[in-house]
Amino acid sequence: MKNYKFLISGGGTGGHLFPALSIADELKHRFPDAVVLFVGANNRMEMERVPAAGYRVIGLPVSGFNRKNPLKNIRVLFRLIKSLRMAKKIIRDYKPDVAIGVGGYASGPTLRMASSLHIPVLIQEQNSYAGMTNKLLGKRAAKICVAYRDMEAYFPKDRIVITGNPVRKELETTREKEEEAFRYFGLAADKPVLLVLGGSLGARTINQSIQKELAVLLDAGIQVIWQTGKNNFELQMTNYGTNEGVWVSDFITRMDYAYSVADLVVSRAGAGTISELCLLKKPALLVPSPNVAEDHQTKNARALSDCNAAVFIPDNMAENQLVQMALELLNDKKQLCVLSEHIAGLAQYNSAERIVDEIVKLIDTV
């Protein structure tokens, strides 16, 4: 059997990177002798997380366009040109059998060069609304793996395959994990748990909402697992981390434990998190970030709220409504069950395996 070479490009956020690593792991499982090379963006999370997962990564100087200050885009254009040249050299030297894009700054120049050098390209689009980079790349891609229906508005219909978003296998929840999780977080098993996910950097609105009314939650007998993100973590920990019934950290290493005990999850509406919530059947209160490209998180949240699979609160209304809405939901077991049932109906299983099936088909056409 040939020793295949795969190139995976993209990252920048966990929503892009975790699916990429899941795909890489499945490729290695399917083809143990295969080589997987990542191409990411310098100074983004993939430059640390990819080597930690056991894969080689090369960084490009590419960065996003500045919509608020167009003059700064002169430097961005120079970085893009340099990144295109670097990507072309990487692909010529590496000679991958298939190039896979997961979204993020680096995927644009990398997949653009791969297609120009006649390397089969597969795109994995996580969101219900395709970003500009993937829309442009979709015209050149041999296959587009998506997580939502009705994506024909963005991609050629005959190349779309619904696969869902790969999620981390270690997130599987069990009854045994639930018992361990209560001990891990130091929480009581007979009280409701609100899991608050502030993102890797910190979702300011979510954090401020919890900070403002944490006492209200505690007085109502609600326990809180609060992942604040890096920004202002020390302040939150100093002020709130000693409260009984509250666990505070900038990062949750054991997300499987956190999901195991959560009765309700408060989160942004990134595609990766939504896929996890669907697979784990978790009721969710979604506060989309207004600071992402083309407002795709709001579109993700609406896609769920329109079918009663999650509750959606706009970012500008969260500080006044989030905690009250969370309390109402936690006190309404019937509605929590409805949300759980509906969000589970949107789950796509074995996504990494299904994406690799499509990659194998591309190999067979070379």
- Which class do the helix and strand fractions yield? alpha/beta
Q: Under the CATH scheme, which class of the largest domain? A: Alpha Beta
CATH fold name of the largest domain:
Rossmann fold
Shape by Cα distribution:
globular
Strand order of the largest sheet: 3-2-1-4-5-6-7
> Which residues sit in consecutive blocks of at least 5 with pLDDT less than 50?
none
Description of the structure:
By secondary structure, the protein is an alpha/beta fold. The chain has 2 domains: 5-165 and 349-365, Glycogen Phosphorylase B (Rossmann fold, 3-Layer(aba) Sandwich); 169-344, Rossmann fold (3-Layer(aba) Sandwich). It is built from 14 helices and 13 strands. α6 (175-185) packs across α9. It is globular.
Topology of helices and strands:
Elements: E1 5-9, H1 14-30, E2 35-41, H2 46-52, E3 56-60, H3 73-94, E4 98-101, H4 107-116, E5 121-125, H5 132-138, E6 143-146, E7 160-162, H6 175-185, E8 193-197, H7 204-219, E9 223-227, H8 233-240, E10 246-249, H9 255-261, E11 264-267, H10 271-280, E12 284-286, H11 296-305, E13 311-312, H12 315-330, H13 333-344, H14 351-365
Parallel strand pairs: 1-2, 1-4, 2-3, 4-5, 5-6, 6-7, 8-9, 8-11, 9-10, 11-12, 12-13
Helix pairs in contact: 1-14, 3-4, 6-9, 7-12
